[in-house]
Amino acid sequence: MSTALEPALSVRQVLTLDRVLAGEPEVVAGAGHLDRPVRWVHVAEAPDVGVMLSGGEMVLTTGVLLAGDVEKQAEYIRSLHRAEAAAVVLGLGRAFPTPPDVMRRAAERCGLPLVVLHRPFPFAELTEEVQSRLVRRKFAAVSLSESVRTALTGLITAGAPLQRLLDEIAVHAACPVVLTNLAHRVLATAGERSAVDDVLRDWERIARQAGGSEGDGWVRAELGGRGERWGRIVLCGYRGDSPIGRLLAERAAEALVLHRMLGGPAHSWEEQSAQGLLTDLVSGVVPARQLLPRARAAGLPVNRRTFVPLVVRDGEPAGLDRVLRLLGLSGLVADLADGATAILLSLARDQDAEALTAHFAARLRTESGTLGTVVAAADARTAWEDVPAGLREARHVADAVAAHSAAQDLPAVVRLKDVHLRGLIRLLRDDPHVQSFAERELDGLLCGRHAEQELLPVLRTYLATGRNKSRTAQLHHVSRPALYRRLEAIQALLGVDLDDFEQAASVHIALLAHDAQQG
Amino acid sequence: MSRVVRAAVFQTAWTGDKESMIQVHEQAVRDAAAQGAEVLCFQELFYGPYFCQVQDPAFYEYAERIPDGPVVKRFQALAKELGIVLVLPMYEEEQPGVLYNTAAVIDADGSYLGKYRKTHIPQVKGFWEKFYFRPGNSGWPVFDTKAGRIGVYICYDRHFPEGWRALGLAGAEIVFNPSATSRGLSGYLWQLEQPAAAVANEYFVGAINRVGVEELGDNDFYGTSYFVDPEAQFVGEVASDKETELVVRDLDLAKLREVRDRWQFYRDRAPGAYRPLTAP
């Protein structure tokens, strides 16, 4: 961490300062090492200056004590190299009219940048300039570190979700920010949408660059605690100085670790990531095409695949994910709203989607130990753009199943065709024509007094039992004469004859539509 | 011209007894076949605990004859029924007192193709294998299966590049490396050595490791089984480090030719200069 806070100018940056340029600097050795950080600038004429250094210094000298002694000159350079000095600047004129060849060769061998000033100026001007810049940088770094830490800690203590934290990090970094697990699966992103999409589009290739270099602005920090690593945060294409980028990434990593530890294991980041993606897909707010890079980065195979949208009611995502792993099926699992869990399977094109769905549903029953688990399935989709409609269809089927009185008798996989009229009504429940039809047909019962509303369950049972009066009376614990009176009241209120098949069917459909509205 | 093989590996935790362990693996064969997998390899000593955490002769009874023992017979029938190639890493008794750490290879028609016996046997804390196994004497067989030319290199073998190379020279296209290896010991090598072997020898590698902590010791087996291609790229994701998982992946064997044409390691190797490697 101290490295990130260490402010530094590179040798190259020092050489481009106006004050230095005026001295006509020339790099005569070690030109390949100009990106070394300069931690301090030190004026020293002593021949044994090496022993006074602690590394990272740019040493300024006139060489006045070295002139005429080539052995001393070479040893001077070697001692600076041993002391890990950043560079040595030699003012020409006093001791050396031209760059001394021995020092140049020694510096080249050690890889120590040797810079000569053709128009030397008082060294004090340079030390003052560089030192004040270093101090300003150090102050800026400490101040940035503190402000980022304060902002992130504030968010964590306020109970902010992961995404909010990442958004804040992205504001400070001014570049896309990606959170991944150890398998390089993208769990969350933040930053400007189009820039994030560009990063995700190429994620496979980027993720494979183990370690990666920071020179290109990719700054990574590991997330972990209690001896275990969980993932990493990546600033993608950070444009500022790399020490500041590292500092930001480290502050971000600390905050994310804290967030995860405080958040507990209720919903893993993997689950939250899948949930965000599947919820966006179902809602249709973001076009499916735009979600494709996110799906790919989340580990879902998407090239030349068949997608099978499934929904299970009262399923538990971790348990469903376990069964997928057991069967070796690729897929995303996440809770949608209202107790529905969506599963998006990704199969190879040559695989039999129906057979594998049946296999999954059967194994789900044996593995979960609940024989009644029903998997609501939509038809498989080969086009990614059709996936949202498929997920919505599967959810409609699951809803229809939930409303089904005899759900326990259903097969392990249920499709739209299996839920018959209920499925149709579910699909059409948002249609205003269907809504007004239900209102119209049931008006007398729905708008009446409390006593009249109590007739609704009687009507529901009567129709569900196939107009079986004795069964209805039994289920409602009333005598048959009492039931007859209630049925007469219902018929009078609705103005229908329930013995007439068409009229009874119409009321039945209206009731299903009404129930679908409520569910 | 692509030639895709759908290959699978299976990692799981010790159930507590041999029969239920076998049943878990039978189910895995069915699950793999349901997905159209053409070949499946299990973890090292698949139907037992990793008993080498202790040195106890009671575990000798886990050894079976290959191919005449009941486990091989049982999986031959299953391979035939489902049309899938199986690699069964198991404890082999050649005769009483002559025991090996072996993998039997069954073709998709149920026929027994042969076996590989683990060559390098470790003897370190938690991995007391010399107590149980003789070093293998099978050489470096490669099996011509319906799913391609398959080699097996078992667990500790993977630290020795020579065997990987011998399998490559014998024409292996996919080499399975069934293992039992624990978190503290080899975690940092697990995603390094096999990908390196895949690159050096220009073939696919399927690496399998069991999961969980067993009653015989503290070894925390970390799973994370995977397939890796001849460019050292993982094929799909790496498996869980804690859960039972079947890994099914499509391997395009055309990549093997593509990579070999690019690099030509087999052309440029210099066997004449390798004599010191075989000096005793």
UniProtKB/TrEMBL annotation, chain A:
Matching entries from Pfam families are given as: HTH_30, PucR
Q: Which residues form the Purine catabolism PurC-like domain?
A: 14-133
Gene3D superfamilies, from UniProt? Answer: PucR C-terminal helix-turn-helix domain
TM spans (from-to): none
Q: Fetch the InterPro entries from UniProt.
A: CdaR-like_regulators (IPR051448), PucR_C-HTH_dom (IPR025736), PucR_C-HTH_sf (IPR042070), PucR_dom (IPR012914)
What residues does the PucR C-terminal helix-turn-helix domain cover? 455-513
Note the PANTHER family from the entry: CARBOHYDRATE DIACID REGULATOR, DNA-BINDING TRANSCRIPTIONAL ACTIVATOR ADER
Designated name of the protein:
PucR family transcriptional regulator
Organism ancestry: Bacteria, Bacillati, Actinomycetota, Actinomycetes, Kitasatosporales
UniProtKB/TrEMBL annotation, chain B:
Which is an annotated GO molecular function term of this record?
Answer: acyltransferase activity
Q: Does the keyword Acyltransferase apply?
A: yes
Record key words, sorted: Acyltransferase, Hydrolase, Transferase
Q: Which residues form the CN hydrolase domain?
A: 4-253
Bilayer-crossing regions: none
InterPro entries named in the record: Aliph_Amidase/BUP (IPR050345), C-N_Hydrolase (IPR003010), C-N_Hydrolase_sf (IPR036526)
> What PANTHER family has UniProt attached to this entry?
BETA-UREIDOPROPIONASE, NITRILASE C965.09-RELATED
Record's protein name: Apolipoprotein acyltransferase
